[in-house]
Specification:
Structural class: alpha/beta
CATH class: Alpha Beta
Shape: globular
Oligomer: single chain
Number of strands: 8
Number of helices: 8
Largest sheet: 5 strands, mixed
CATH topology: Lambda Exonuclease, Chain A
Order of helices and strands: EHHHHEHEEEEHEEHH
CATH architecture: Alpha-Beta Complex
Distance between the termini: 28 Å
Radius of gyration: 20 Å
């Protein structure tokens, strides 16, 4: 029997005690309001995307590595290599903010929505500005050096939501964040029980001005009694409605 259970408990639906407007839910709304509504209002989840354990392992190792320099108050070699004026930030809430299903939280009082998102890392520069850092891992022939695909647009929004959340928690946040992008190499002569990675630091100048207007749109969607139209590029909805054509 498949592990996927499309129905969630009522407390995790909109209006339930455990429901929060997470970063991923905001991204789902922007991708497809139809799926967002069915998921969060009606409680039927999309089939999940498989979790890649190698990505989780890279994430874990990077956090351990940067935490060593956080404790020592020293720069990580990657920050030195790219000439970044920053060190890992020793904030008292860093562990809480990196914890899944908790993360950075802010109650948006006009809508009553509790917005949340779990960051990967937080740096600080000499001007006292906090810098959002996100870890990414993939495997390709060439290392990723630019955020130039449609998929990367979601990464950019992710960064901007985190910047917005930390500003709402009264932190001085730099507009520039960084992606630590690790690309597994295909050109190793032998596996030898390890995979080597090219690690590239990619800067991104965020603009979080869209976040709050989107929260109002999400609130309006959730309060509506009508299921919104599906997103034009939503593969789930396209498949579902194409499938229904065969059953008429």
């Amino acid at each position: 029997m498949a592990d996927y259970n499309p129905k969630r408990g009522g407390s995790y639906n909109y209006g339930g005690k455990q429901w929060k407007l997470s970063r991923s839910k905001i991204d789902l709304f922007l991708e497809c309001p139809h799926c967002f509504y069915i998921d969060n209002k009606l409680g039927t989840k999309r089939p999940p995307i498989p979790t890649f354990q190698i990505n989780k392992a890279v994430d874990h190792q990077l956090k351990k590595e940067f935490d060593v320099h956080r404790v020592k108050d020293t720069q990580h070699p990657l920050q030195k290599e790219y000439g970044i004026d920053a060190k890992p930030a020793p904030h008292e809430k860093i562990d809480e903010w990196r914890e899944n299903f908790k993360g950075v939280q802010f109650l948006h009082e006009p809508t009553g929505l509790l917005v949340s998102g779990a960051i990967d890392d937080l740096w600080i520069n000499d001007r006292g500005e906090y810098i959002i850092v996100d870890y990414k891992a993939t495997a390709k022939n060439d290392p990723v050096r630019e955020l130039d695909t449609k998929w990367h647009e979601s990464y950019k929004r992710q960064m901007e939501i985190y910047q917005w959340l930390l500003r709402k928690n009264n932190l001085k946040v730099s507009n520039t964040g960084y992606f630590v992008y690790c690309t597994g190499k295909y050109d190793q002569e032998a596996f030898d029980k390890k995979i080597e990675f090219d690690v590239v630091l990619i800067p991104y100048v965020g603009d979080d001005s869209w976040v709050e207007p989107t929260i109002y749109e999400i609130k309006e969607c959730l309060e509506s009694k009508n299921i919104p139209k599906f997103g034009d590029e939503c593969e789930y909805c396209v498949w579902w409605y194409a499938r229904n054509e065969y059953e008429k």
